[in-house]
């Protein structure tokens, strides 16, 4: 699985907004790859930020 898929799964399973650090911790990915994948997910509008620095999958 690629990092984007893993991040989306973590966000869907948690059911609450998570920070990039929490996503890295729960997914087992390193922070740099999480940041890079999240940038791509934001551009694709697959994740949204309900509050500053926290992310959740787009409904």
From TrEMBL:
Q: Tell me which Gene3D superfamilies the record gives.
A: Winged helix-like DNA-binding domain superfamily/Winged helix DNA-binding domain
Q: Which SUPFAM superfamilies match?
A: Winged helix' DNA-binding domain
| Domain of life, per lineage | Bacteria
Which residues are in the Helix-turn-helix type domain? 7-46
InterPro entries of this UniProt entry? HTH_11, WH-like_DNA-bd_sf, WH_DNA-bd_sf
- Coiled coil location: none
Q: Which Pfam families is this protein grouped with? A: HTH_11
Q: What is this protein called?
A: HTH domain-containing protein
Question: Per the UniProt entry, what species is this protein from, by scientific name?
Answer: Chlorobaculum thiosulfatiphilum
């Amino acid at each position: 699985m690629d990092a984007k898929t893993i991040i989306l799964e973590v966000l869907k399973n948690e059911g609450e907004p998570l920070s990039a650090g929490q996503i890295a911790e729960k997914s087992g990915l390193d922070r740099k790859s999480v940041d890079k994948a999240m940038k791509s997910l934001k551009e694709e509008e697959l994740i949204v930020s309900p509050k500053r620095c926290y992310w959740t999958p787009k409904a």
